[in-house]
Amino acid sequence: MKVEVIGEIVKALGERPKSVREIAREVGVGWKTCSRYLESLRGLGLVVEVKTAKGSLYTTHGSRRAKLLTVPRIRVGASFELIDEGPPPVGEVEDLT
Amino acid sequence: MKCALKVEEEAKYLVEPGVEPYPILPIRIFREELEKTVSTDALMDTGFDGAIVLSRSLSDFILDRVVKAEGFEELDAAGIGIPCDTCILQIYVGGGWFKVRAHLPRMGDLGTILGRRVLNKLTLSLRGSQGRILLAKS
C-alpha cells in the first residue's frame, strides 16, 4: 500500500462521506484498488463504512463535525450566576459524550 | 385519552423587538473545579446537533479561570467552520443531569445554545402561542 494514496483517501473523506467511485476518481486510482485500500483502512479502524439505500459510503472515523444549521440572531446566556449548589447526585448523570 | 406526563418545570420564550420569540431553557452547569454551580439560560436550537455551545462570557470564565480546554473541534455553523475548544461539563436541564462535550468558540459569540444531543433526551411541549415551554419528567 502506498502512503501517498492513503493520505489522499483520508483527505478526500475529510470533506464528507463518499462512495468508492467518488474516492477513486478524486484520488486517481482504479475502483478495485480504492476498494482494497478502503477495506484495509476500515480494518484498521481509520475508515467507517456507512450503508445507505443507494450503496455504501465511507467516512473517516470521528470526522463528523457538530453542525449548527443557522446562526441565531439573538445571544442568550451572556450573563450567568454562580450559585451554591453541590455536585450532581452520584449515578444520576447520563453520559452523552 | 388523558396525558399521563407530569410537568417538572416551566420555561418561557424570550421576546425581543424585531425577532420572532425564541424558546429558552434555564440550565445549570457543574464542573468540580468550579466549586459552585453556574446558573444561566440557553437557547433551544433543534438545528444544532451537538450538546451545548457556550456564550463568549461563559467560555471565557470557564477557560480563563477554571478549566483548561480538553480538545479542539471545528463547529460547522451554517457552512462556516468556527474553531472551538471543547471540554466535558455536567449540565442540569429539565429535571436531569447530563455529562456532555461543550463547544467553546474561540472567536465571536453565538450565545449559549442547547442542541439536539440534549434536547432529544427531554420531553418538551412548546406552547408558542402562550410563550411557554413545559418540561415533563421523561
Annotate the secondary structure layout.
The complex is a heterodimer of chains A (97) and B (138).
Chain A: H1 3-13, H2 20-27, H3 31-43, E1 47-52, E2 55-60, E3 67-68, E4 81-83, E5 93-95
Antiparallel strand pairs in A: 1-2
Helix pairs in contact in A: 1-2, 2-3
Chain B: E1 7-16, E2 19-30, E3 37-44, E4 52-53, H1 56-66, E5 71-77, E6 80-93, E7 96-105, E8 113-114, H2 116-119, E9 123-127, E10 132-136
Report on this model:
- The complex is a heterodimer of chains A (97) and B (138).
- With 97 residues, chain A is an alpha+beta fold.
- Chain A has a domain at 3-60: Arc Repressor Mutant, subunit A (Orthogonal Bundle).
- Chain A has three helices and five strands.
- Chain A has helices spanning 3-13, 20-27, 31-43; strands at residues 47-52, 55-60, 67-68, 81-83, 93-95.
- A two-stranded antiparallel ribbon of chain A has the order 1-2.
- In chain A, strand 1 (47-52) and strand 2 (55-60) form a beta hairpin.
- The two termini of chain A are 35 Å apart.
- By secondary structure, chain B is mainly β.
- Chain B has one domain (11-130): Acid Proteases (Cathepsin D, subunit A, domain 1, Beta Barrel).
- Chain B contains two helices and ten strands; from the N terminus they run ββββαββββαββ.
- Chain B has helices at residues 56-66, 116-119; strands at residues 7-16, 19-30, 37-44, 52-53, 71-77, 80-93, 96-105, 113-114, 123-127, 132-136.
- In chain B, strands 2-3-8-4-7-6 form a six-stranded mixed barrel.
- The model of chain B has no long low-confidence stretch (mean pLDDT 89).
- The chains are: A alpha+beta (97), B mainly beta (138).
- Chain A binds chain B through residues 65-89, 92-97, and chain B through 14, 16, 19, 22, 24, 28, 30, 32, 34, 36-43, 45, 47-51, 53-58, 61, 73-78, 81, 88, 90, 92, 96-101, 103, 109-113, 115, 117-118, 121.
